[in-house]
Write a structure and sequence with these properties.
This protein is an all-alpha fold. It has 9 helices and no strands. It is 73% helix and 0% strand.
């Protein structure tokens, strides 16, 4: 019995990654993001916020050692599984899921690169982050609250940066309150 349990036991980093992804989804579903910051409450708007929160977690875990790298990969894998499940729940057929997942994966990769660059220069140059938020979260619509969304994103990144690594590797994360 012990051998079977050890063969099918979920690795701690995988379990932590799944838990962190679920926490990112819960944060991305905070009504204040949609009500107060006017993020579009659409499939696309939710995709952008799920992606953004996932990116923030992966960015925090970057270059923090092997366990953090494995946890970050597990966060990303759970994110992709969530996208796949979401497409299927929306009624996308099996033959189309692969093509749509490829497009979403490419979009997510572009977001990872874009947000990493924009967050890296935000303190000196907030414009790239605000512009990226306008293009992604608000879909080029008039977005007077893009600066407020950027401020929230920075608070979230800063909050993650000061959280000890050990709780994150155990799947525990604390997000800041969403406010204008």
């Amino acid at each position: 019995m012990g051998v079977w349990n050890s063969l099918f036991r979920t690795r701690p980093q995988v379990a932590a990654g799944r838990a962190l992804y679920l926490a990112a989804v819960a944060q991305a579903r905070q009504q204040a993001l949609y009500r107060d910051l006017c993020a579009p409450d659409t499939n696309e708007g939710r995709f952008e916020l799920y992606t953004l929160h996932t990116i923030l977690l992966m960015r925090r875990l970057k270059r923090q050692g092997e366990a953090a790298a494995e946890t970050s990969q597990a966060v990303f894998d759970a994110y992709l599984r969530g996208l796949d499940d979401g497409l299927r729940e929306m009624g996308v057929g099996d033959l189309s899921v692969g093509k749509k997942m490829r497009k979403l994966g490419e979009a997510a990769y572009g977001r990872v690169v874009g947000f990493d660059e924009a967050l890296g220069v935000y303190t000196q140059h907030p414009e790239p982050l605000i512009a990226l938020i306008r293009r992604t979260v608000y879909r080029d619509a008039e977005a007077p609250l893009a600066p407020a969304m950027a401020a929230y994103i920075i608070r979230a990144a800063e909050s993650l940066a000061v959280q000890p690594l050990e709780p994150l590797l155990a799947g525990e994360v604390s997000w800041p309150e969403v406010s204008q």
